[in-house]
Amino acid sequence: xxxxxxxxxxxxxxxxxxxxxxxxxxxxxxxxxxxxxxxxxxxxxxxxxxxxxxxxxxxxxxxxxxxxxxxxxxxxxxxxxxxxxxxxxxxxxxxxxxxxxxxxxxxxxxxxxxxxxxxxxxxxxxxxxxxxxxxxxxxxxxxxxxxxxxxxxxxxxxxxxxxxxxxxxxxxxxxxxxxxxxxxxxxxxxxxxxxxxxxxxxxxxxxxxxxxxxxxxxxxxxxxxxxxxxxxxxxxxxxxxxxxxxxxxxxxxxxxxxxxxxxxxxxxxxxxxxxxxxxxxxxxxxxxxxxxxxxxxxxxxxxxxxxxxxxxxxxxxxxxxxxxxxxxxxxxxxxxxxxxxxxxxxxxxxxxxxxxxxxxxxxxxxxxxxxxxxxxxxxxxxxxxxxxxxxxxxxxxxxxxxxxxxxxxxxxxxxxxxxxxxxxxxxxxxxxxxxxxxxxxxxxxxxxxxxxxxxxxxxxxxxxxxxxxxxxxxxxxxxxxxxxxxxxxxxxxxxxxxxxxxxxxxxxxxxxxxxxxxxxxxxxxxxxxxxxxxxxxxxxxxxxxxxxxxxxxxxxxxxxxxxxxxxxxxxxxxxxxxxxxxxxxxxxxxxxxxxxxxxxxxxxxxxxxxxxxxxxxxxxx
Length: 621
Known about the structure:
This protein has 20 helices and 25 strands. The protein is an alpha+beta fold.
């Protein structure tokens, strides 16, 4: 007899015997507690495992790591990240979550603050807190903290609202237990999604600060918050730097998922207004670790003596844990971008091949999927299960989804560029535009077509300015505007833009974040990641199929079908990708070898201060 049948029989028996109120659903189906969860297949690590395979359990706990942050910050309230203010980097180090992912498995998470239990159909998910889980002030973490955290994030964070939209009830179901009830069963990824919930101290946020002022969870703050994680804020200079210290009496230091991790005594983030100043600070040994996002700098800027004598090491780490769609993203809330032919015309005007040669030293490749870099990316024509899923939305998607393999226009030489611009002109004409006095205008209203490229990064200006002449040849009036980060975020939240460069990162096992990326409900939510403003019933339907997939093969088919529909609606002009993380570092650290497949560099969590290497760097000055 399966668990559902057993539940039904038991409930009937209780009613017939007129016993006290029957047990709740959570009580009936949560008799088994698990040390981890995975939507598909078995967990790699058994109950009672001692450590993850990829850590060094004997790593020394010492030293400091200095990292770069660009821009500024004015907020320590992690709940409103992306909604108000600019969050300081590293605040996640201050908090623990219910579960943590394993970096050598594509989709498994293991208990940190809690064990997990769930019903057979995933309609109820429970977490049981560890009895010794503590805040930094020594007080216990409680179910009330979990409930408060869930309600707060769902109310104030657009991303959390999208991830948790199916949760209709959360309640304390035991002395250390919390149970979440779902309105629609079948979402196998919810135990992991909920497991990533950052737990906040309810009593602290509902209390007062040192001056007697009541704290406000809906506002920015520069008061260091109470946390439970391996690090806490030691000192900071608003907008310029922030230093975290390792919590020596951290409650979870000996838990299996933490063994060999969090090895630095101090983590420091130094803020710089621009990348040039940050690079010079790195060269001057004011920074230990630098992630290089500029292909030009990677090719030309690291020719100083410390690199030549190996005091500074250059290394590329493969990115296996996430795919990406990085693109020129249109604001389709604006009438001029509603027609997909207009958006496609912009793609025909983009000569990626020439840009790659001139600006990027031919290091990049063009993106052709919203899940670029993963096995979930679509290719060729849909077949088998993927085709079956697309048939359910055939009347709501472009016909090319079924008849053509998606590809971007290819430039790189005058003949190809001319051909592409002619096609762009035809598309714009079919969309209702014409040329008057060398300007593209709406044939009905006579309004000129103008577009503004918006960014907060000066380095993107060269990309926009390269793109600009091609669009101007079509008669489009182009302006490029770079603003400070705060203004950029405010304009993004209020949908006050034409085109921005935007990136959506996607894990190997997509989940509820898809609704926040491209779901219709998120289109009107300020601060959501649906910056495009997609409101498409076919996209919504395919996202549901992804979330309800019971087998990995079905999930892959649903994701690829979704990918095709997004691509053929031409919501973006895809940009470029590089499937490695470029890192320059002063040779003072060591790491496990090999690093876990899905951990990229694993820095700083898995690394440690190497005193011998640090001494050699010092002696070679």
